[in-house]
Design a protein that fits this description.
Helix content is about 45%, strand content about 20%. With about 475 residues, it is of the alpha/beta class. The strands form 2 sheets. A 15-stranded mixed beta sheet has the order 4-3-2-5-6-8-1-9-16-15-14-10-11-12-17, with helices on both faces. A two-stranded parallel ribbon has the order 7-13. Strand 14 and strand 15 form a beta hairpin. Helix 2 crosses helix 3 and helix 14 crosses helix 19. It is globular and about 85 Å long.
Length: about 475
């Protein structure tokens, strides 16, 4: 065959493959996917067909494997069976008029009831929260359930692990869950697993990336939850991982970066709801159902205390539970909204909700960090500042070298949310998260004091200052914004 004919055949073949890929992409990618995400994937494949297809095969499926989804459905029913939510329970004369509809929404989404009779205290200092958790573990008599996105035994967290080891020696059942991908990238990962094994704790990796063992879900679907439950009596939930404040990364240490967190310690019947989240994740990873450590969730009417509702979310659920909760709160806010989110990359619905809220006369403050630890996310976040500022949102830049990693949200005078969820597309669609919805003036008052502390050390970003950003920053911000939609 003439070499020119061979060349022609190769060219035609490649053209047909390229055309086939583009046609297939148009058919497959938009199905059951956000328009923004579908557009981003189509752009990637059209401009870089082979690279785009490879990326799509690796991270294009936003769902967990079918087996895991089926386990989640089983546990959702298990939660319903262990939650006392009779008709008419979800109402309270002291609630704002709009709050009942939000509670109904979250109950339908997560199968978790809102529960009276709880107390909660905020812990805004990094070392204090580690010490408080270690002290609580020291009081355990039955079990300790530890679930963290990142769990690392290092120079800062030794007392936490010492407390776990002492609990095991006392005969306390210690169970530990840690996210595989996130924890495995830490300096002391192998030493941490050895320490857990040596002390006699039972542990499992969450969402392990182990293709040779059949664990081949999308590698960036992560379990981002941070929960500690002790004896079903007390629990901790918030933004903080169990690791040194610098995350033991050379680049962070060189830059002097330190993480600023917010954790809440809670007591009351809602602790059992958080324990159900742990039991769910334990079952999904181990096939062991901890039925003996489940108590029926019953509402204890006590107007002097806090009403709390646990709202789990993630790719194991049909709906984006956290996003729907946040949207409902924003559209119902009447007096004031304050948002704290380290990685603020909203989807279109969230952006419209925030700007609509401030445009209908409700002040909205947003706290973010002055600097970023993840360049791509930081630039994507910055791409939204102009739209927010033009709408009237006040943006506060928390001082460097601190990374404001706290994740919370206050609405009016008596409603708040705290937990592991950022206000970004990853937390809405790809990460397994857990949020605590709280109704109570005392809790919101305490959280507002924390927010006032942020404001005292932050610099307000103005529209005039933002307009002076160099062109190269604008280009980087916009490119990062496009990549953030690849879901």
């Amino acid at each position: 065959m003439d070499p020119s004919d061979v060349s022609l055949i190769i060219v035609v073949t490649l053209f047909l493959i390229d055309l086939g890929v583009r046609i297939a992409a148009i058919i497959i990618i938009p199905r059951n996917r956000r328009p923004t995400a579908a557009t981003a994937w189509l752009l990637a494949i059209f401009f870089l067909p082979y690279v785009g297809v490879l990326l799509f095969l690796l991270i294009g499926n936003p769902k967990l494997p079918r087996k895991r989804r089926q386990k989640q459905l089983e546990m959702n029913q298990f939660i319903r069976d262990n939650s006392d939510v009779p008709e008419g329970r979800q109402s309270n004369a002291q609630w704002p008029p709009w709050f009942a509809s939000v509670v109904e929404l979250t109950t339908n989404l997560s199968a978790m009831p809102i529960i009276d009779g709880n107390t909660a205290s905020l812990i805004p200092h990094y070392q204090d929260s580690l010490e408080a958790m270690a002290a609580e573990i020291g009081k355990a008599t039955k079990y300790v359930h530890v679930e963290f996105y990142i769990l690392s035994c290092d120079q800062t967290t030794y007392p936490f692990f010492d407390a776990l080891e002492a609990a095991v020696r006392r005969g306390v059942k210690v169970r530990v869950l840690l996210d595989h991908w996130a924890s495995s990238r830490t300096r002391d990962y192998k030493a941490t697993l050895k320490r857990l094994t040596a002390m006699g704790a039972e542990w499992h990796l969450m969402l392990p990336v182990q293709p040779l063992k059949g664990n081949n879900q999308r590698i960036d679907l992560r379990n981002h939850r941070k929960i500690l439950v002790v004896d079903g009596r007390s629990a901790f939930i918030g933004s903080q991982n169990v690791i040194d404040r610098s995350y033991n990364k050379r680049v962070n240490i060189k830059r002097g970066l330190k993480w600023q967190e917010l954790v809440t310690r809670i007591e009351g019947p809602v602790v059992d709801a958080l324990n159900l989240i742990f039991i769910t994740d334990w079952f999904i990873e181990s096939d062991e159902l901890l039925e003996k450590e489940v108590e029926t969730l019953e509402s204890v009417e006590d107007p002097r205390r806090l009403e709390c509702q646990v709202v789990p979310s993630g790719p194991g659920y049909v709906n984006e539970n956290n996003l729907r909760l946040f949207l409902a709160l924003l559209y119902n806010a009447q007096k004031r909204v304050v948002i704290t989110s380290p990685y603020f990359v909203p989807d279109e619905a969230m952006l419209y909700a925030i700007t609509s809220t401030v445009q209908r006369g409700v002040p909205v403050d947003l706290f973010v960090s002055e600097i970023g630890d993840q360049a791509l996310v930081w630039h994507a976040q910055r791409s939204y500042y102009e739209a927010l500022l033009r709408a009237g949102v006040r943006i506060w830049m928390y001082k460097s070298p601190y990374i404001l990693h706290a994740k919370h949200f206050t609405i009016d005078d008596d409603v708040a949310v705290i937990g592991s969820s950022n206000m970004d597309m990853r937390s809405f669609g790809l990460n397994m998260e857990v949020s605590l919805l709280v109704r109570g003036k005392s809790f919101v008052h305490d959280m507002r004091q924390v927010e006032d502390g942020y404001r005292a050390v932050s610099k307000e970003l103005t529209l005039d200052a933002w307009k002076k950003q160099p062109l190269r920053s604008t280009v980087l911000d916009n490119l990062a914004r496009l990549t953030s939609a690849l879901q």
